[in-house]
Amino acid sequence: MNRITKLGLVSAAALLPTLGWAEEAAPVAGVDAASDTIFILNSLLFLVGGFLVFWMAAGFAMLEAGLVRSKNVTMQLIKNVSLFSLAAIFYYLIGYNLMYPLGTWAVEGVLSGVWGVGVLESVGVGRDGADDYGYASTGSDFFFQLMFCAATASIVSGTLAERIKLWPFLIFTIILTSLIYPFTASWTWGGGFVGEAGFSDFAGSTIVHSVGGWAALTGAIILGPRIGKYKNGKTIPIPGSNLTLATLGTFILWMGWFGFNGGSQLAMGTVGDVADISRIFSNTNAAAAGGAIAALILTQVMYKKPDLTMVLNGALAGLVSITAEPLTPSLGLATIIGMVGGVIVVFAVPFLDKLKIDDVVGAIPVHLLAGIWGTIAVVLSNGDASLGTQLYGIVVIGGATVVLSTIVWFALKAIMGLRVDEETEINGLDMAELGMEAYPEFSKG
Q1: Eight-state DSSP code of residue 224
Q2: How far apart are CA 151 and CA 160, in angstroms?
Q3: CA–CA gap between residue 173 and residue 85 (Å, rounded)
Q4: Has residue 93 got a pLDDT over 70?
Q5: Distance CA 314, CA 299 (A)
Q6: Residue 32: band (very low, low, confident or very high) from pLDDT cuts 50, 70, 90
Q7: What pTM was estimated for this model as a whole?
Q8: Considering Cα of 148, then 149, then 155, then 161, what sign does the dihedral take?
Q9: What angle, rounded to 10 degrees, do the helices at 73-90 and 138-159 form?
């Protein structure tokens, strides 16, 4: 990808003394300086976007801590710290090269031919030694892509809360982040057959969010609902421990999404790139707002009182909905796309309860169903996308994720068991599995 352009009305040569590149760039004057500028700005976009997406890990942790009961808060916190750390290690060991074969396929367009650890550029690398001097540093790309991988695993954590054992969940996380997610993502972002067919998913409504949602759904079905959630044909509400934390987590995720979507522009070296990034930020924010307000109004109409948890998930559903195409919609269309996501959440949560699928935090409506909607909504503003191709990508990636996740969940269930025993679940996983509580002062009545 060649994004070297003129630097507006200011010549690159005039910038050299200011940027400190005068001696290094002297032989070819402005050309090298312009290339350096693009390399630096693109790498900076990945790094800034990456640490914003990293901050989403805190958002997931706070959201889950707020929506589970106090006796299970510590378990959710340790799961979130551990899953992120495992994703970092195993994406390095296997996932990165599996996801980005750079044209080297064992099975053309399907399976990477590059297996092994990720390798960064050498210390103090110069122009001649950079892996892709015309684009960005390898380290910045690896860092950015890793954050997406970890976010996929975070989606699964909340759905299965309050009844899954720690170690089977962490083993599933290893397989998801090293194999399942990189494998399916390579089919689009790695230059594979789904992308070649014309499937469009700008920042991952399907590739990230629906993959996490499908993995969560299969796990929830196999694991079964929490004790006492469904009785005599009725759904028994199980309130979370701290809606303040859940609200904080939602705002943190909202903030991190600017890096998630904005960084997915993948370049910041031209006026057009920066203008597009600002457009992506604005559309991302509009969709979140639309999702929140749609859920606010709809719960008022349906239940005579607004439901905060629905509003929070409405905002997140709006964010997921716009993720597949945050660039091309107008602000108005972005708001509408987000509003549809909010509506999906309000109707999908009780629908899942009718099916007795227990999703503690609402991740399946937010990430899976809104992810599917967002992927379809690409055709509303992107003239290069077709409905048939979008549906093709949804079915292929979703189908593969369901099959692979189901195999892993059943294998873990047979080998070591997935679910804690009844006494542990009733008393809380914090003390039984970890021996510590998040709120020890208030645990005894």
Answers
A1: -
A2: 15
A3: 10
A4: yes
A5: 11
A6: confident
A7: 0.91
A8: negative
A9: 150
